[in-house]
Amino acid sequence: MITSPSSQRRSERSRRATLEAALELCTEKGYGRVTVEAIAARAGVSKKTIYRWWPSKGAVLLEAFTDGFIGATPFVDTGDIASDLRTHINSAVRVASTPPYGPAYAGILSELHHDGALAEAVQEQLVGPRFAAAEERLRKAQRQGWIPAGANLPLAVEMLYGPVYYRHILCKPPHDEATVAALVDHVLRALGAVAGGGREPDIS
Question: Pick from 72, 53, 68, 52: which is nearest to 103 by CA?
């Protein structure tokens, strides 16, 4: 059935209201106390509507977090791979550790160990695409001559993100900008990356 433009707009408004309500409630009450009923009441939609679009509250919050996380953590290309990675990782740390997205992220990480469907969705909607985007940014730097051709880019991505996840999962204080800079420099050195900021690498 073809949906009319007006009903599409109503559906998008309902979707946004649901995601925003879920984030608000998670910040106010904590992930464990959020229910689909409460989300529906806050968003002004029916519980049936939520279950038509999402299988669980975890799925609602995952979509809300993923939307915000991807929008706030782009992979820019200024010509300086170290600076670009620092920008990305610092943005990721801020989004994952502060409201409204931080409480949702913490709850999702806890819940996925008990919910196989949510764990699969996290991999498909968040982790997989982000890792692929990070690897592509490194591959572009590789094509530009900043990173050696034989470098293990998938491992480098794990090295970049691993410490961030580690601190979040263990409820340690998030990395500050100096620590992020040290992390990025360490990973790039491990890759054998060319030093020199934004200057053109010597690929002769």
Answer: 68
Mean pLDDT of the chain: 90
50 phi-psi bin (left φ>0, alpha ψ -120 to 50, beta other): alpha
Preceding amide of 100 cis, omega within 30: yes
Boundaries of every domain in the chain: 5-54, 61-191
Q: Is 202 helix (H, G, I), strand (E, B) or coil?
A: coil
Q: How many CB atoms lie within 10 A of CB 33?
A: 11
Q: Do the Cβ atoms of 139 and 153 come closer than 8 Å?
A: yes
pLDDT tens digits, 62-97: 999 999 999 999 999 999 999 999 999 999 999 999
Nearest one of 151, 153, 172 to 163, comparing CA atoms: 172
Superfamily of domain 5-54: Homeodomain-like (1.10.10.60)
Query: In the structure encoding, which two tokens stand for residue 9, read together?
Result: 């707009």
What pLDDT digit, counting tens, does each position of 102-126 carry? 999 999 999 999 999 999 999 999 9
Would you say 39 and 77 are in contact if contact means Cβ atoms under 8 Å apart?
Answer: no
Contacts of 76 (CB under 8 A, 6+ apart): 84, 87, 88
- The Cα–Cα gap between 145 and 180 comes to 23
- pTM for this entry: 0.86
Q: What is the pLDDT of residue 23?
A: 98
The CATH code for residues 61-191 is: 1.10.357.10
How many other β-carbons are positioned within 10 Å of the β-carbon of residue 140? 15
